[in-house]
Amino acid sequence: MDRIDAMVLFVTAVDEGSLAAAARSHGRSPATVTRAILRLEELSGETLLLRSTRRISLTEAGERHVGVWRDVLTKLGELVPSSSTGLLQGNIILTAPELFGRLKVMPVLESFMREQPHVFARLLLLNRLVDLVGEGVDVAVRLAALPDSTMTAIKLGEVRMLVCASPNYLQRAGSPASPQDLSHHDCIGLNAEGNGELWPFRSVNDKGDRVRSVRVPTRLSLNHAGAAIDAALRGQGVIQARAYQVTEALSTGHLVQVLKAYEPPPEPAHLVFHPDRGKRGPVRAFIDHAVPVLRSELNRITSIIPPPG
Hints:
Layout (H helix, E strand, L loop, with lengths): L2 H14 L2 H8 L3 H15 L4 E3 L4 E3 L1 H20 L10 E7 L1 H18 L3 E7 L13 E5 L8 E8 L1 E5 L1 H7 L13 E3 L7 E6 L8 E6 L1 E4 L3 H9 L5 E4 H9 L4 E3 L8 E7 L7 H24 L5
Parallel strand pairs: 3-4, 3-5, 8-11
Antiparallel strand pairs: 1-2, 5-14, 6-14, 7-12, 7-13, 9-10
Helix pairs in contact: 1-2, 1-3, 1-4, 2-3, 5-9, 8-9
């Protein structure tokens, strides 16, 4: 067994969560996968996996190695000759915030894979900042201002933060006229500790785009944006949500935007990738496919929910 083959089995075992699953995925025996991992540990001189009867977990050394090996396997995949039909072959690993990934990135990825049937993809829906190099990820969607980085970023558009509630809630409780009024409303938060939240608002009394945070007591707190939106749709209270999360509900009248004058400045949305990875192969093809579609979708949201003023 060569080292590349062993790396493939190792990465699959990590992704699938067990040696047996990796064996099934590649039509090998569990003993073969075990030998592959032992071979890599022998070559590295370090323990890479902690194994038990039920699960495996990466050691610190394993975390370092798996990111490098993902990168190597992806680059090798980009060098695989195209098929006789001229279609790309290879792998791509993507990450995006959970709800944006499910609502907006998944349809783009699915259409890309229909066009490129020999490309294999993994989409990691994670509400955290992913280390692209360290975690072996090719492309990330970032919905925030970007820190200084060696990564290449393509701006997709902007994402707005809105405050809204259902018509029946507003009929029952009244509509807030200012952020301070939220202290008298049932607010729905995304703070797992359930002790209130700081919601950003534009300060209408100052020139420019000055933002101030207002502490909002949350009567109901959840750890998932989709569940919070569902609660608002059922009339449980007021939420602050990103525009893409509530576009359809606002367009159909199931939710109503409030405090429009206090809407904070939008945050940028970018597609981020390592410059070397974005030059060719499936990664480049996905970027070229995704950027115009996602830009169009963010523009569509703005046309449905015009910004204040």
